[in-house]
Automatic annotation (TrEMBL), chains A, B, C, D:
Residues 136-236 form the Acyl-CoA oxidase/dehydrogenase middle domain. One of its GO terms (biological process) is fatty acid beta-oxidation using acyl-CoA dehydrogenase. Its EC number is 1.3.8.3. It comes from Acidithrix ferrooxidans. It comes from the Bacteria. GO terms for cellular component: cytoplasm. It holds the Pfam family Acyl-CoA_dh_N. This is (R)-benzylsuccinyl-CoA dehydrogenase. Its cofactor is FAD. Gene3D superfamilies: Acyl-CoA dehydrogenase/oxidase, N-terminal domain, Butyryl-CoA Dehydrogenase, subunit A, domain 2, Butyryl-CoA Dehydrogenase, subunit A, domain 3. Keywords: FAD, Flavoprotein, Oxidoreductase. GO terms for molecular function: (R)-benzylsuccinyl-CoA dehydrogenase activity; acyl-CoA dehydrogenase activity; flavin adenine dinucleotide binding. The keyword Heme does not apply. Residues 248-397 form the Acyl-CoA dehydrogenase/oxidase C-terminal domain.
Length: 403, 403, 403, 403
């Protein structure tokens, strides 16, 4: 083993195939998608073009690439090999679902692979891996700061052969789609246990009585197709066999879920940043003010240079974190995962914001994808732990070296 | 005369009356407004509550406060006395229209007052001052960097007793409302004149044949009630009496229009920032994470302190610019007006962004006004000249001192 | 009273006289000063040119301008009238001492005026006001975070008719000069009292046995002429009549001392920033790279514009704080004083750093005053309370509004 | 070849040996060094401890590690293997010279290796490689912006068998040492050639008549031991055999020189940043204010986390640039080299500045190495091309992708 920054032959092959898929299928589909959505009149419509893309991706061998470990269900691809694919998929909002690598399904599939019973896998993992259904993840609660897991108020109470779930969750992303069939819900089975053993996760089919989708949250004015649901779990009863793992393992499962998921998000953020930088350059070359193209003006050049520097650094740090996860495990990579979780959305936001400024009015409107990308990246400074919690984690580990 | 930071008795009286109006009428109206808009199903609906607020404002003597000079039409209020009122009105999106001090009508009314013929004033200024109609301002063009006025492509060509207007404009804010009756259009009457004498402004009733509202632009994902119109002026013919001022005076009128308008925008930005800071503090006091309220955590305290510092500085600089306009005129205040034009939206964006972070998911959604405020403020780094053009202006003036 | 940004006639007259003094005497003296210092070979030499400047300043009526209140000892000048004079004096390191308005004497003279006995005033205030001696202020201790006054370890113990002082102090600025005759020392007379009543201040002539000047601290490689002393007070005995105010009043006196002192520092920081901006502009106009002067390059223009914006804001905020001190008292201005304490050195550092970058190698060397100015301003983010403590103060006050 | 972030076995072995050398020899030598310098009374003294360290380093096989290519003179070590050694050596100002890897000798030795004649190598490269003499590099000129090579004014004129050199250079680092025996001087042999073929480099023994060391520049207030010389080359005559490479190749040689040199500087900057972060953590753990250690306070934790994130990113980007240089050559790595040239000193400055703030007064004084490190890093934003020139380079390459 020796330091090398060249992607593996396998990774390069997949990248080439994914890039071809993007050029030949995904980008051309974007306009079709817009048209199908518009004509449906339903912001939560499932447009046929997605199904087309999915079938193409499957036939190109670009399917379920996100699962790191070889199982009976999937071939497995290392985090390091998957990361650049996630980046490429981040350039178009259609790509992640097209290759069945979209959040929150990826994380849900991963924990089902790792912690699910055979029965649970047959019922939920199989159709998710086949892209037949979608799923959501109900952890965050409106009433409390959910980045501190000890704050969770949702209760999961044993009652005979059933668990009874009561709680209010929001940002259950994906829940507004009619194709979303199951939620993984985090709640407390034992509020008196030690802080990180109070929580459990449980599988809740969305058609269970008592599951009430209250509303769909907007993000900076945008209604996302899959939606961000607020769900009231009101005396919801499921069989005890729906528990994921053991009672009290919820926090540990959440941690296991988050490592690779953060790599995915981060690399997609970098893909988004690259797209914004490319748009910025194109605009800067064509737009003229005060007798020069914007590309010839020092201020714009500074923005382009800083964007390139920030993106390159964020990518390398993410690849390093992915490599650590592959070599020393998710736990050994925790500091670096927190680092990229802070870095990548902030880089993407800065780059997108500069691109908006270069586009002027077009930048904030629907004439470019920039404002929508901005809105999406902005949520990532909050989702899966706000920046501040990750910084606290990083600082504590750094300080520990000097004990 | 001697330095004094106390508002004048007149300003304080108006502030108190406006604050009472906000508390007693405007804030309570916000919910009514949401309900009336929702039930109308039309994003460009004109809800009755606005008319109620307008009539209340009139009876409280809070009407048309923005006009700096005493004329036969208005009493006149100095920029310095009006500025804090603009700040207060910036705290609610309902307030500016309620007191008939909303952009772009204010700027349009001001230039009609200054440059309009008696006939033009009777036809357009009177109903605008009475709040009976609204207006829009068509300067920015999609095809060119419009911050450089020499780029303007819209043509205004004399043909007998008429001018013929051809051009495509966008960000004609207000144009989507059925109450918008007239546009002030900037175009070139003489493309061969010296760069700043090529342009003229002309009054175009929106029902003139050839005026085509192409579409309404969104800002981030928001559709504004008054809308941001893209308008195609396609062989539009108006009588020569519709010209505002003289041929070739368009650039000069634009400059005259912008001074006070920037004070208004800036002070409303500061009002928005104050509201975001207040929301941030309230949230920080009530939200608990890791055993402490957010208000007790150093990082949040830093955000609050920096917000207070930035807001206080931006307000003082704006008041100073207003005072300069009152004492040495718009031209003498140009550097300072450029300074506040850069400062205020950037301060507001930073404060709002911090508030979003403190609110978590609620911050980006419709549960707080923050994301919408962010979108609005973000456009102000582009409207009326992007930050970069103002910085260039400031730098040139500074460098001139060392010639 | 009504808002007005014009300096008072008295302030303008003093400014004009001080500006004339700068042009006619201070700036020309800078070279003489360098030569006298160099030829002395002693970094703590008192060069005759200072005494010349002092006598000129006195004859021009530019002497002891800093004292805000009229007493039998001084005429008094409001903080608001003095502030712009402090700014002007900040442009040259010779000016503050030349007009007898140099720290730490100013603060020491002020508390002697307010809290000193007649005897103390005769002995120390009189020669300080006459510029015959200098003084230092011993509060900060090397061993503890002294921004938290409860950490102070220096003891002041009553023993019969004497107090015995034991402690180690540093950053006792001015102590390295042979002209420094007295220290005001902060220590604890009663460590068991409530946190803010444990401390007292006491006058210690520097020739008292047990006063040991351990060393003189450098600042970024620079040895300041008056020096920054580390002093060991080792069983130092002074008569009880040397106590300033009452036992337990040390913290309160420190607070009283800091308000105006912070205005002075802040305005001098702004003066330094203005000088750096002027130097940057001059260099940018004359230096050519890649076919254009630096002044024509967008990046440099951005720096100039941002510097102008930041300076103008910082000045206005400081003037506002000064006005508050004059009108509602030091206590009522505490938030604003903390705000300017944070803002001004940070603005000055940013402006100076940009100027250094424009000067290239000359910027970090002795060929410009920039590096030395940087070092001086950098200490002001620590002296009289670090930025972080002031931010905490501001945040707490802001949060209190929402209780 | 496949992506791997593990250092090579060779690199790890060298790192371990260098770390041992640091612990066993370098750090303990720092105090001895200070004492030898102090007692010499000469800021340019060559203290015996350096010679001790050099002999130890040689016997440990830690000598001349910087040369990337295997030649008859050196074994060669890849940039990627050397980079982490440069980082380690950056932690102590004694280490680079101790292992004969100090600037500007490294760059000079490299171009002598690549472009020197056998005679030049015997005369200058041999004693440099043996650590017997030192050298300086005379490129920058006080009168012009030297980052634009076409500005160079120094002339190198052929006169029979000699070249005559006339020009004024500064920041000829190392020239103040009596051990510095030769300068490599950049000047114009043909001012009429195309812009990048006007320059040549020539070897000038410092004892040649006409070489006048005018003065030694300070950096902030520091006098560096090797000094930063301003040299007047006044009708200096050297034989034509002293030309390095061919006439007109000066710009190309400068480019060849800069690639690896920038890696070295960057990695040493990162070493400095790591040291500052470690110091910050130690201080934060031990210092108490307002009832908590600084390490427990959110603001300080944010600084520590951001420092860790910034350092990790800068290191990975530098390693990537080093790998590119090794695999595709210096030219193929130019964008990335410009990126790290901007990133590393800025990261180091931010981290050091935070550490200073945590140390309070000790941070700006001689009680910590921080202020001196700050001064050193600050010059690196100017040396070898200011940030702005590198940003311009990066932007142009990025824009070229969209032609």
């Amino acid at each position: 083993m020796t330091m090398d920054f060249e992607y593996s032959p396998k990774a390069k092959d997949l990248q080439n195939r994914l890039l071809a898929f993007m050029d030949e299928a995904v980008y051309p589909a974007e306009e079709v998608y817009e048209e199908q959505m518009r004509s449906s009149g339903d912001p939560h419509f499932y447009p046929p073009i997605i199904e087309d893309l999915k079938s193409q991706a499957r036939s190109r061998g670009l399917w379920n690439l996100f699962l790191p470990h070889k199982t009976e269900w999937t071939e497995g691809l290392s985090n390091l090999d998957y990361a650049p694919l996630a980046e490429i998929s981040g350039r178009s909002h259609l790509a992640p679902e097209a290759i069945n690598c979209a959040a929150p399904d990826t994380g849900n599939m991963e924990i089902l692979t790792m912690f699910g019973t055979e029965e649970q896998k047959e019922e939920w993992l199989r159709p998710l891996l086949h892209g037949e259904i979608r799923s959501c993840f109900s952890m965050t609660e409106p009433a409390v700061a959910s980045s501190d897991a000890s704050n969770i108020e949702c209760s999961i109470t044993r009652d005979g052969d059933e668990y009874v779930i009561n709680g209010r969750k929001w940002w259950s992303s994906g829940a507004s789609s009619s194709r979303c069939k199951v939620a993984i819900v985090m709640g407390k089975t034992d509020p008196k246990a030690s802080p990180y053993q109070q929580q459990s996760m449980i599988l809740v089919p969305l058609d269970t009585p008592g599951v009430k989708l209250i509303r769909d949250l907007t993000v900076f004015g945008y209604t996302d197709r899959e939606g961000h649901g607020e769900i009231h779990y009101d005396n919801v009863r499921v069989p005890i066999s729906n528990l994921l793992g053991e009672e009290g393992s919820g926090f540990a499962i959440a941690q296991a879920r988050l490592g690779p998921g953060r790599i995915h998000h981060t690399m997609r953020s970098i893909g988004a940043a690259e797209r914004a930088l490319a748009l910025m350059c194109k605009r800067a070359r064509s737009r003229v003010a005060f007798g020069k193209t914007l590309a010839e003006q020092g201020t714009i050049q500074t923005w382009i240079a800083d964007s390139r520097i920030e993106i390159d650094q964020a990518r390398l740090l993410t690849l390093y974190a992915a490599w650590l996860m592959d070599t020393v495990g998710n736990k050994g990579a925790r500091t670096e995962v927190s680092e990229i979780k802070v870095v990548a959305p902030n880089v993407a936001l800065r780059v997108i914001d500069r691109a908006i400024q270069v586009y002027g009015g077009a930048g904030v409107s629907e004439d470019t994808p920039l404002a929508r990308m901005y809105a999406g990246q902005r949520t990532l400074r909050l989702a899966d732990g706000p920046d501040e919690v990750h910084r606290m984690t990083i600082a504590r580990r750094e300080l520990r070296k000097h004990e």
